[in-house]
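Hello, quick one for you while I still have it in my head. A protein chain has come my way and I'm curious about its shape. I'm sending you its amino acid sequence along with the backbone structure tokens. I'd be grateful if you could look everything over and explain what you see. Here's the protein in full, and shout if anything looks odd to you:
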Amino acid sequence: MNDLVTMTSQRLDAEIYTTGDIIADYAEITHHAVNQLINQYHADLEEFGVLAFQMLKPSSGSIGGRPRKVWHLNEDQAMLLITYLGNTKPVRLFKKALIKQFSVMKRELILRQAKFELGKEFSKSLHAAISESPALGEHGHLYININKLVYKQALGVNVNELRKARNIPKTEAITHYLSSSEADAVKRVKQQIRTLLEMKMDYQQVKQALQIQGVIYRIELQLPAKASVK
């Protein structure tokens, strides 16, 4: 039971939710029964936020079938709904696991938000170091390349590929979409670059010095799944 809770996006301000399908599967109740409960207590659930849903298409290769509605429930809605379920052993085990995962996910979001705020200060100091570095001279505009270097050495990925994999608009900072561990790696590389620039190293020397240590926190990129959510 490690996949009971997910987020609406990878942004820092994402909302955490579970689904009616997850409740049905892990509580060992039919999907129909769970959907009936959601429809029956729809007004109660909407006291805790808009009830979002995703239209799920029939699996590839299946014969017939129509798109079906999969409900998304925030923490309060999920906690309310599970009080309407029975107390069989599978339901009790699921309730405990769901509560724990919501707590874990909330703590991770809070940690990410805190590290984002801290990271903004390091970004400002790096900007200052780049603009003031005599080694960069008239090439102070190399900040774009240095930014690319940060993510390559911190996470082992290309900036453009990272934006594509996480659907990050060009107008938004990548730091809005980093996990707490990823944010730590990025902050560490920025600190190192700032120190190297203060040692009057030029761009190529900085790059070579970072490459010697290797990637700090290598990640694997996956293309996002396409879904239609109302």
In short: The chain has a mean pLDDT of 88. Residues 208 and 214 are 10 Å apart (CA to CA). The chain has nine helices and four strands. The two ends are 27 Å apart (CA to CA).
